Amino acid sequence: MPGMTSVDDSARTEPSTLAGEREMLEGWLDYHRQTLALKCRGLDQAQLSTASAPPSNLTLLGLVRHMADVERGWFRRIMAGERAERIYSTPEDTDRAFRVTDADSPGETWEETHAVWQREIEAARAVAAAHGLDEVGVGKHPSGEVFNLRWIYTHMIEEYARHNGHADLLRERIDGATGD
Predict the structure, then answer these.
(1) 95-106 pLDDT tens trace
(2) Cα separations (Å) of 2 from 42, 51, 113, 177?
(3) φ, ψ at 165 (rounded to 5°)
(4) What percent of the chain has pLDDT above 90?
(5) DSSP-assigned beta bridge partners for residue 178
(6) How many Cβ atoms are within 10 Å of 117's Cβ, its own excluded?
(7) Considering only CA atoms, which of 41, 22, 81 is closest in space to residue 167?
(8) In terms of CATH, what superfamily is 21-175?
(9) Which of 16, 59, 109, 177 is deepest in the core (most CB within 10 A)?
(10) Which residue positions in the chain have pLDDT lower than 50?
(11) What residues does 155 pair with on adjacent strands?
């Protein structure tokens, strides 16, 4: 379309096409983490907090907040068994992270949210590095099911891929930028 710009994806690392299983899973997860960051790059606080696809109230900032909670939940709580509370959501309102309200915006900057998300990614990498793909997490999932690290990696790739699709639409609606 005329007037459309492309999101620069030069900072994103393509996963290896010949890697072993673990390297492949880690590569795809990092690729999708980088994709979400790219979808947010170059936007100001107001744009990141804009629900640009009515009637949905989904925002790019809300997606990043959600993924910080998801990283923490699967790696720290489920895999490692840490008693790490949710960051943005609550047990009563599991979708709270998605909703960025006027009450959130003045006290929560993109820089703060991004830093929280990056800390959770680093914590997730540390937890994963300490476990094999077949190891089962020691934390309790609300369903009672148990999950091995391989499943968690696969689920996280799916979670990011789904939300990166949302981010594509939100970003295009904000400033017309498109891209993978």
Answers:
(1) 889 888 766 655
(2) 20, 24, 33, 11
(3) -65, -40
(4) 77
(5) 6
(6) 25
(7) 41
(8) dinb family like domain (1.20.120.450)
(9) 59
(10) 1-4, 6
(11) none
Q: Both tokens of residue 12?
A: 């994103």
Q: Is the peptide bond before 91 cis (omega within 30 degrees of 0)?
A: no
- Gap between the Cα atoms of 128 and 149, Å rounded: 7
**Which residue in 42, 98, 43, 40 sits closest to 65, CA to CA?**
98
Segments of 33-155 assigned E as strands:
none
How many Å apart are CA 151 and CA 157, to the nearest integer? 10
- In this structure, is the dihedral angle defined by the CA atoms of residues 156, 161, 162 and 165, taken in order, positive or negative? positive
4 DSSP 8-state letter: -
Tokens 């991004």: give the residue: 114
- What's the token pair of residue 23? 């390297």
Residue 10 in contact with residue 180, Cβ under 8 Å?
A: no
Q: What sign does the CA torsion over 60, 108, 37, 69 have?
A: negative
Cα–Cα distance, 57 to 101 (Å, whole number): 9
| Residue carrying structure tokens 């830093």 | 115
